[in-house]
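Notebook, p. 212. Picked up where the previous page left off. The plan for this session was modest: take the two constructs that came back from the sequencing core last week, fold each one, and keep the raw output in the notebook itself so nobody has to go hunting through shared drives later. Recording the first one now, exactly as returned: residue sequence, then the C-alpha cell string.
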Amino acid sequence: MADLDMAMPVRERDGYRQSALVLGAAQLGGSYGIANTVGMPDDDATARLLRTAAELGVTHVDTARAYGESEHRIGACRVPSLRVITKVAPLGGVADAPDAVRAAVTESVARSRAELGDDPLTLLLHRAADATSAGGAAWDTLRGYADDGVADRIGVSVQSPAELHTVLGLPGLGYVQLPCNLLDRRWRDPALTEALAARPGLVVTARSVYLQGLLAAGAAVRWPHLSDTDRDTLVGTLDLIASELGRDGRIELCLAYVLGLPWVTSVVIGAETEEQVRRNVSLAVRPPLSADERAAVVSALPDVPGALLDPSRWTS
C-alpha cells in the first residue's frame, strides 16, 4: 500500500472540486454488487469506512434516497470534510403530473436534508426520464435548489449515451453520472466525446467501472449473457494486458482506463470494508492510462453482448 503516501488527485470543474475517487454508498444501505461477500457493514464499520475515506483524500460520498438506510447512516457519522452527492427518489407514477412531480422532488430533498444535514448537497435526478417529463418540472425544482444554495451543483444520473445526449441541453446542468467500463464501446462514439469536450465545466462521474463487480471477480462468478469459456478468455486477456502495461492486475487496469478518459472527472466505487477503501484509494492515486495505452486495450478486447453491459437485463 505504498501508494497511499501519494496525494489523491482532485479535479476542478468551474470551481467545483472533486477527488478522482468518489466513495459509493449503496453498500451502506444494503447488500449490493455481484461480488459483495461481506454484506452491509454495521454502524461502527460504516463510521470507520467514511472516516478512512476522508483521511485518504476522498472529497465526496455518493448516495441516494433509493439506497435504503444509506443517507441515514452517512448523516449519523457526520464527517465534515466528506461532501455528499445524493439522488432524488425516482418519480415513478407521478412523472406526468407537474404539481405531483414538484411535490415529490421537494419531499425527497427534504428527507435527504433531514438525514444528511443542512450543508449544500450535490443533487441528481435518479432517472434521465425524470428530467424531461411533466414539462421539466423536476428539473425546474432542482434549479430552484441551486439558486437557493441548497444544492452546490445539480445533475442527472443516466444509463446510456442516448440519455446523456438528451440531458446535455438542460439549463444549469453541472453534473452527470453514467456507467462506463473498458468493455463498453458505446462511450467512444465521436459525437459523444465531442459533445463532452464542448462542456469542460461539466462534472462527469463514472460508475460501474468494474461492471458491478464482474470485472473484479473474474472467473470466480458466472457472467450474465456470456459463456464460461468466453468469460475465461476475456479475463485472461485482461490479466495479460495489465501485465504488459505494468499494472497491478485487471482491477487497476479497469480503473486506470476510465480515469484516463479525458472527459471523466471521477469514478464512484463502493466499498463494504475499510480495507477495500484503502485498496481503491491506492489504485486511484496511480497514473491513468495514456491515450495510446487505452487504444491498445480497446484493440485487444473482443466485443461483448450488449445485455452484459446492462445490469437491468441480468437475471438473478
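Okay, moving on. Second construct, recorded in the same format:
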Amino acid sequence: MKKVRIATRGSSLALAQSETVRDLLSSQGIESELVIVKTKGDKDRASSIQEIGGDGLFVREIEKSILAGEADIAVHSAKDLPFVLSPELIIGAVPAMADPRDLLLLRKDRDLENSNGMIIGTGSMRRISEYKRQDPHAVFKDIRGNITTRASKLRAGEYDGIIMAKAGIDRIGLDISDFDVRIFDANEMIPAPCQGILAVECKKDDREMIDVLAAITDRNAAARFDIERKLFCLLNGNCKTAVGINAAIEGETVILRALFHKKRLETTFKIDETDKKLGEIKDVLLTETEMVE
C-alpha cells in the first residue's frame, strides 16, 4: 500500500494523537506521513469557542484536505466532531481510548478548603455547570490555547485553577508536578461525549483504507464512541449547552451518565437495548430541561 497521508492540526496534542495512529499503522506494516492543517480555531486564539462557533470548529478544514485529495485520512478528537460529517466521509477507525475524566490543576498556594471566589479557567458550559455543584462560589474565566499554554497561564497567576481533560495531559506527557491535582470521577463531573476517544476519518469509497483502519479499531472504544455519539446527536446540543455523556461498558452492560443543561441522570441497560434506551433518555432529558427553563 502507498504511504498514507494523515491530516492533523499542528498542536502538540493533535500531533501526539496522530503519532498514535501512525504507530498503529506501522504495526500493520504501513508507512505514513503527517499533513498539517491550520483550522479556524487555531488561527483565532483571542475569541471564545462560543464566539467563533463550536460545531465543527476543528474538523471542517481538515475534512476538506481529504476531499481535495491532499490527505488520505484525518485524526480527530472524537469530542470535536460535529453532528453531521461530510457525506463523502466516514469514521473508519476508533483506536484504543484514553482516560475520559476531567481534572483540576490548582496552584499550590491555593486551598480548596478555603476556596471562596477562586478563579477557575474554563470556557466549557459543561465544566462550569458541574463544578458549580461542588463549589458554588467559584468564579469562571474563559481560557484558550493549547494544553501547554493553559498550564503556563496558570503558572503566571492568571487563574487559581484550570479544568482540562486528563487524556490530553496524558497523551502529551505534560509535567504537572508543580500543581495540586484533583481528578474528578465520572459521577462528580460527567465527561464530554467521546472525551478521550480518537476518530479516524476517510473517504467512504476508499475500500482499501477502510479495511486497513478496521484493523486498528478497538472494540470497547468503538462501542463507547457509538453510544455517546448517538445520544449527543439526538440531544442536538452545542458549545453553548452543558452536555455531558459517559458510557461505562462492563461486558454486555452499559452504565450511562448524562447531563443536559441542568438535568443529570444515570441509568443501566444492556448493549442490545441501546437504540431504544437512548431514545428514552433523550425524551427525559429534553422534557425535564424544558420544565426547568
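Notes on construct two before I forget. The CA atoms of residues 94 and 222 lie 5 Å apart.
Flagging for discussion at group meeting.
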